[in-house]
Amino acid sequence: MEYYLYGFAIFFLVLLGAMAAKAGGSSILKAVARVTFWGTVAMGLTALVGHFFGVSVA
After folding, report:
1. N or C: which end of the chain has fewer CB within 10 A?
2. Phi-psi domain of 25 (left: phi exceeds 0; alpha: psi -120 through 50; beta: other)
3. What pLDDT score was predicted for residue 58?
């Protein structure tokens, strides 16, 4: 279940980047790469901090 959560989160980050670029008239590929990369970094850092503090959501 955890891997599906990560997969869907990344999928929706891609979708969000594409929609934002389309709405703003920007390059879709650049926006998708930017939103997906930084969103994934943010999720990873959040998980790392949770691991350091021993937080478990189960």
Report:
1. C
2. left
3. 65
Q: Which residue has the tokens 């970094």?
A: 41
Q: Which residues span the domain enclosing 21?
A: 2-50
58 falls within a domain: no
Rounded Cα gap, residues 43 and 40, in angstroms: 5
Number of domains in the chain: 1
User: Which segments of 1-58 does DSSP mark as H helices, in order?
Assistant: 2-24, 28-52
Q: Name the pTM for this structure.
A: 0.81
In a domain, 55, yes or no: no
Please state, rounded to an integer, the average pLDDT across all residues of the chain. Answer: 93
Distances (CA, A) of 47 to 3, 19, 39, 56: 13, 26, 12, 10
